[in-house]
Amino acid sequence: MTDKMREEFIEAFVKQFGFGRMAASSNPDAAGMLACAEWAWFASREALVIELPEDFTSVGSPNMRMLVAHHREIVGLLVQSIEAAGVKVKS
């Protein structure tokens, strides 16, 4: 997980429960709650896999070849964006 993802988690946790790492460091119950929530959040991100539409092939038409190339470019950009969010893309 990236630092950005950890920050997103802490921000959501603080918004929901009103305390973060500093408060949890001095309270064993809060520390346990934070650790469990963090584990569950990361596990849910790890388990999530996006399946994109299958690629298609052209039948020879120049317009169709251009459409296929454009489709592949867009799918590549989608994969980059999804993976940057910490989510896997099924290959």
UniProtKB/TrEMBL annotation:
Pfam families: Phage_phiTE_015 (PF26207). InterPro entries: Phage_phiTE_015-like. This is Uncharacterized protein.
